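Quick one: co-fold with zinc ion.
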Amino acid sequence: MIAEVIVNSSAAELNRVFDYKVPDGYTIGQNIDIGYRVLVSFANYKNLEIGYIIGFKETSEFKCKAISRVCDRAFDLDKYELAKWMARRYFCNLSDTLRLLVPPGTKTDIDKVKIKYERWVRLTKEYLSNINQENETKKFTIRSEKQKRVIEFLLDNKEIPAGILYDVTDSNSQVIKALEDKNICESFEMEVLRNPFLNKVVKRTEKLELTKKQSEVLNGIDFTNYNSYLIHGVTGSGKTEIYLQLIEKVINSGKNAIVLVPEISLTPQITNRFLSRFGRIIAILHSKLSNGERFDEWRRIQNKEARIVIGARSALFAPISNVGVIIIDEEHDSSYKSENTPKYDARDVATKMAKLYNIPLVLGSATPDVRTYYEATNNTQNMKLFELKERIPGAVMPDVKVVDLRKELANGNKTVFSEELYKEIKKNLENKEQIILFLNRRGYSTFIMCRDCGYVIKCDNCDVAMTYHITKNKLMCHYCGAEKKPVQICPSCGGENIRYFGTGTQKIEAQINKVFPEASVIRMDVDTTTTKNAHEIILNKFRDEKIDILLGTQMITKGHDFENVTLVGVLAADSSINIGDYRAQERTFQLLTQVAGRSGRGEKKGRAIIQTYMPDEFSIITAQKQDYKRFYEQEIKVREKLKYPPFCDIMVAVVVGKKEAEIIDDANKIYNIFKSHFDVFAPMPAPISKINDNYRWRVLIKAKVTDNDIDIINYCLESFEKSKHKDTKLNFDINPNNMM
Ligand code: ADP
Ligand code: ZN
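Sure, here it is.
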């Protein structure tokens, strides 16, 4: 019998399947099957490589080696079907999608992979039997206080990790060594699961009595069949509580649950709510885990110790069996769409899975994706809609004011704080209530221009203006990370009238220190959150040390629930309207509504102030009223008229490479290949025409993509692959987040 194996080696040709003999003593369906992990010798490599069995056949036309070792099952047949579906649907190799199904960072020697051991200490059997006989007399032969403390502690606690023992008994390895020499205690190795919340003490919470509205939602969900549901509920309307009780129902029926939350809000706040309700049966998967932690969470799921998986989009592929519900919180969030291969949309994959398992899919948001809301209200996908229009009694929606920055300027106010925002910040500082300030640009000055000739300082590698960072005193490129010394003389005309324009979070921080010297402020953006637990540390500090102002970019807008925040200020709402994307209004509306929703979540009523140069944009008007419906009705008309999603799909092909002539040539090839099947726009340089010294040309294709079209697109992409220049890379995606 021959096994067909995909070899997980960088040396193996990606989409090729290799044949290996099944060793004696193995029977398909018993101790070997599709989805099993194996070790195989590959090419002339010394080390064995990991492979995954994806099929069997009687004979092979090649003279093939035998599998060196059969390991465990890595994924089941359902998942394998899903991986195949994804490879076709997202135009990539099967090995790309299979990689999602297996824990990362696994090395060849499977037995030793990443299992971590820790030293534990316990009393010896001899000592224990001695005390039993001699009634503790032995203990008194010990003179050292520290040694006595250790013994007493071990008598109570049996065995314990050495590190914790040192802490609680104020001892150290020498103390233990002395006791070991007397044959009183011994240490041993114990496997540890690197649990990301090992050191967390959370109070258990009980379920709340649901409001009538919440019960209607919970009771309206059919657990026995596939159906999809959209819970559209304003911020603070009790959606999370519904998820918790939904999961409880599923767990009680013996099934398991998957919950997706946006990567950015996988902060302790959300996870604590699940942890305090369900305890250790939850597993958490997100990109900031170390490979070791991820591996261990993966194992806790496989061992069935964890029954609820909470994670970012890739948590869909966790090795959890018998799934009873999939929940996607903040379903509008752009992090559900992967921008790397495989470029999947977790909502579509979740739909596929829910159908496969015949279980409910529950989406929730205060500001649903226009596409999702369209589906829910037009019933094209049999999606059921629930609306929660009010906050849980006790909290009310914040008052939102819009301030026209043009008028501020006309009145001679050149600071970043409008009159109104200044007054409100003052008020909060006096009342000891907290403030969140939001600006979607990091750095100090966001562009640097020569006033004589208009030259803008750009990155040498990218077609991107550089940002001045005061903390580093450097100009930085936010695309490739390149740095430059600050410029005082124009590189183009030699003039000395270089000016630093635009405002980033660092400048705001400096302004706060100047204008409100009495206030304490903490900044949260990409630059302050590079270390592993930085988000958590900053947010805890803000809450626990009662810092007056939390200032930050997008990452402060979601999921956080601070009782004492009663004022939210949006310093410049325009930055997302001018992004040159058909979703600009939608993104603006979502952002403003979410950030305003951070205000007044406790008993005190909240306020939000939105500063803008474009107060007449409908996304800003409707966000002020917190009126999703009105926003949606206007937006969907625009989409229909201009043939944008959901009425059409936009395929974006970006051809990338170092040689501009080849890139233009290849862009034309794409154009010609697709032209015979779809409406294609002529090739153009991409809006950002160079990144990291690579030229970029873009071809846009508009069509309502059907299942049949997927085959045609795959065919087109294969033809292109055969005819393109060797070094050209193609990024192809349907409805990508980033159109640039
Ligand atoms: P959302 O997820 O829609 O933002 P949450 O579930 O976080 O809303 O609820 C908002 C607040 O109301 C939370 O503090 C939560 O504990 C509380 N809450 C939710 N449901 C209830 C309920 N049925 N009774 C009392 N308080 C509730
Ligand atoms: Zn750059």
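If it helps, The longest strand covers residues 48-57.
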